[in-house]
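Hello, quick one for you while I still have it in my head. A protein chain has come my way and I'm curious about its shape. I'm sending you its amino acid sequence along with the backbone structure tokens. I'd be grateful if you could look everything over and explain what you see. Here's the protein in full, and shout if anything looks odd to you:
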Amino acid sequence: MLFLRRLISLPLVILGLPALGLITWDLLAGPGFRVRLFGVIPLDGHEGGEILAGLSAAAVVLGVALICAVYAAAAVCGADRRRLAVVFAPLVRCLSFGVAALALLQMSIAVLAAILFCVGVLHFLPLGVLIGLVAGAFYTAEELIRAAIGLSEPAAAAVDGISVPQDAQPALWRKLHEVAAELGARPPDNLVLGLAPAFFVTGGKVSLPNKTVLHGETLYLSVAAMRLLSQRELEAVIGHELSHFAGDDTSFTLRFVPIYQRLYQALAVSHAVQGYGALSALPPRVILREAFLSFAKAERRISRAREIAADRAGAAVAGPHALIAAIRRMELCSRQWPTVVQEAIAAINEGSAPDNMCERFAALALAPEQGSDGSAVMAQPVASKQARSSDTHPTLAVRAQALGLDPGSLRSALTPDTPPADALLDQQAALEESLGALLRNGLIASGVARPPRDPNRPNYLQKKRLQRVRQAESRKRRAAESAAEQEV
């Protein structure tokens, strides 16, 4: 169904407005006219028709060229990550400016065709429709140009966390260097600690809540999740993540992945355009969609292969059982994080301080009904399910089988060992409190949480009244000082 939709919509959208322009030009090929729009702008029917035909032909050529470039690049790259890393970034940059130029052409065709048709055929000019069409088309072109610039210069990814230097967390950094040395990978340039239960690496720019922008390779570790993992399981997770910066995976992680994510965002921008501007946004939207879908299959195939390779790296560091146990534990326990956040929001709205979110998360994840160590849930056999076509991660059963483990025999292995991973953290209580305050401030700043107003804190009217009182007192004081000087 999707293929049929693409097959029909692609030529229809690419050729739609140019065909409209050529039809309008054909209607104006016979009788000519000369008018002055608004009594100022001279308009000649024949010259306008020729310009319209030229714009229509240019739009067709540009649209077909962009589509051919996408299909040719996808065919050449295939699922070769080296080629994707080299070809995809410059292709998307050129493509982004190409669709912006196409939007300008489509805008010009729509506006000029509307003017010529109304004046030359209908003999009147609906000013409201014309203004709406021009405004919408210019808005579309502006948004697409912004998206094109964004694709050329990927924006920093916002991450809620704290960047910790090596002297702030020496034990954790020492562990990172040990794992990196064992893998033959380079340690990350930056280490960010946060609350959200996730672990990931990125090679793009990272923006922190304190407005700091990190450059280079960044590893994110969850302090809340470290309460649930053993050090051996953490080593396996770190080995998995750092392997993305080893060998052929490095260029793919640094070049392809950030641009691929930005392409998806640009596609979302084109879908957000509404009103008259949506007409001229259709061709760029279709071209961006074709680029995304043409590389999506290869990206999913490579991403799953990368995850299996990264699993082998993590298993080489700490053993396959430790890695599968960590992944299983995170899959199960991360479901409790939304509950922790909702409880924090409720506490803020009531005017009370939320509990330590890491402690609360650990308490929910290791609830009594799961056993003191969560073994009741962890002992459940790993289900063997087929991954959805949109998933970039293989199922846990597939990952276990790739490491030579039988999913049905993992029950006894999926139990935590000692020592705990959070023992690597220096000043853990202060760190968790700082991260909790960071998350609370973010919830309040975004409007998700709204603490009650302090009755002792003056509102706007009270502030203005106090300001007027202070100004009056200041004027009286200056008048008294002036009178005193005159007496002297």
User: Anything to note?
Assistant: The first strand starts at residue 34 and ends at 37. The beta strands are 34-37, 41-44, 157-158, 162-163, 190-194, 200-202, 206-207, 213-214, 218-222.
